[in-house]
Description:
The protein is mainly α. Among the domains are: 70 residues, Alpha Horseshoe (Serine Threonine Protein Phosphatase 5, Tetratricopeptide repeat), CATH 1.25.40; 76 residues, Serine Threonine Protein Phosphatase 5, Tetratricopeptide repeat (Alpha Horseshoe). Helix content is 67%, strand content 0%. It is elongated and about 50 Å long. The termini are close together.
Amino acid sequence: MKLKSKSKSAFVQSFSGMTLSIITVISLSPLVLAVPAKVSLDSPEQSVERQPQKIAQFSDTNTPERSQLLQQANALYNQGDLTGAEENLRKFIKKSPEDAFAHFQLGNVLFRQKQPEEAISSYQEAIHLQPKYALAYNAIGIVYASQSRWEEAITEYQKALEINPNYGEGLTNFALALWQTNKKDQALSSLEKALNIFKTQNRGEKVQQVERILREIKTADQPSVS
Length: 226
């Protein structure tokens, strides 16, 4: 990306960091959807993400064994033991290879271990098992965005939004990718829609995040794609 000024360079750097921070939170938050309410891979400060969302329909049954294995993976993850969490999830998947959520969760762990291609493969397997898995499409978009592969990220976000047009996190990620590809007006439109959704859901932290992004985009020079 070619920058026109030092001030713009500073903004892009901070904006890029903010983007990754936001999408990392988003990528982990959906894990609460298929496990008991107190079990998730997000950290305490991300608990605001725990909102009911009609994003993906899980066909898996929460048996005691399944819940226990997922809880173990969550505990390892929260302790910072990503390798242990991965091993636990792989053992679980070996027993239950058709559990779409487990593949999705493994993808999140792999992404945090800086294994993007492996993470994408896990997300794709989740989609293979659960075609309407908007969260997994969004997650693939996140991986591409982390590599500045903006057009590919946009494609994945669009797939997620086709499944759930009111997916606030997906709309936010979509907007950030649009901004990086010189589509400022579309980015602002997507952010405004995400903002309204988060307000409706009473998700104050998300509202503040999106409002901050809106202010920065409105006052910044458009990035120039090389």
